[in-house]
Amino acid sequence: KQEVTQIPAALSVPEGENLVLNCSFTDSAIYNLQWFRQDPGKGLTSLLLIQSSQREQTSGRLNASLDKSSGRSTLYIAASQPGDSATYLCAALFNDYKLSFGAGTTVTVRA
Amino acid sequence: DAGVIQSPRHEVTEMGQEVTLRCKPISGHNSLFWYRQTMMRGLELLIYFNNNVPIDDSGMPEDRFSAKMPNASFSTLKIQPSEPRDSAVYFCASSSGPATEAFFGQGTRLTVV
Q1: Chain B contact for A97, CB < 8 A?
Q2: How confident is the model at residue B1 (pLDDT cuts 50, 70, 90)?
Q3: How far is CA B86 from CA A57, B36, B57, B80, B112, in A?
């Protein structure tokens, strides 16, 4: 079964600290991996998409890496701010064209 | 573009009633997905369409659930009859192709009492 796992489930850091969010997937035959942000009671906002042929993607303070051979992706958020507090979800697109989601990591950035 | 638009945002209905959720994908996108999110099970794919054709509906939980996409700019997810365990947030997402970036709507929070 194709699964996506995110550990830890929750993370609390002081403002200014760098955030490292982990995502692992069981099948290395993925088309792409996408990171989303979800605020309470809201929809999902796409942050970054990494194609299977890429190693990383960057957008502002966000950087996501992909290591297909080890089945891992990491989202780095530099110099965290209270506004970064949210749940971050990773989703892997497997060869059946189904986006499989992890359970998410809920981040709290303390002012 | 206004993004993926879902309606209604909130729906409260009584058990046994029919519920219809609506979605307008981003213009030009030809893949559309319906997801359900619950605390217990997270985000689950219910069904996805490509060029208005249902490609995979293996995630649809029961025959009470049905989805249609009559044209490229509109899709519905219907539950008939609804049950309390159907209470969840239902998301619609679209993309320009099955392996491209997916964009989500704000969701419909369904409560069945």
Answers
A1: yes
A2: low
A3: 37, 9, 17, 11, 7
